[in-house]
Amino acid sequence: MPKSRSNGRNTRGLRGRQVDITPARTRFLIVCEGARTEPGYFKCFPVPSADIVIIGEGYNTVSLVERTKELQQQHGFDEDTDQVWCVFDKDDFPAEDFNNAIEKAKKYGFRVAYTNQAFELWYLLHFDFHESNLHRDQYIIKLTDKLGKKYEKNSARMYETLRHMQPQAIRHAQRLYEQRTSSPANDNPSTTVFMLVEELNKYLK
User: CB of 50 within 8 A of CB of 81?
Assistant: First the structure.
């Protein structure tokens, strides 16, 4: 008997048979451009009530979206009931590639946590609101100053270090998002990482 997304109890059917109506667990597939920074951050979310597969692929823009499609099929994620996310940055890739990757992901039914220019913008927004057009190398300098120590790009401690400031980061990212244009590649700085963070936060312990 298939599981129903109901009230999580066992009840009896029309003929007295016990029917399992335990809610199905939410499943996430999160495929990241970076091999360590982004996967390391998202793996720190304590979300025992959801099943999460996080993969750092080393692909970028359109190639990452195509790879995500392959991984979705390999891992058996359902396009209608499961959440599939692509996480990638603008970096110095051509604007057309960046925008096309976002559109292609949407056509596949994927959600996108993109950042223009680099993922470190999400970290920086925990401290202050930033709307200046910065190159990704400048984020490293600013984060080192804010943290009071050298920012380690692949640090596994960033989630815990910044967790208490996360609501502020979400507000700042939303504010940037509200200023967006019709071309994400032109929206420097901007990030939709906050959307994935909000989804994961629904399943925190």
Answer: no
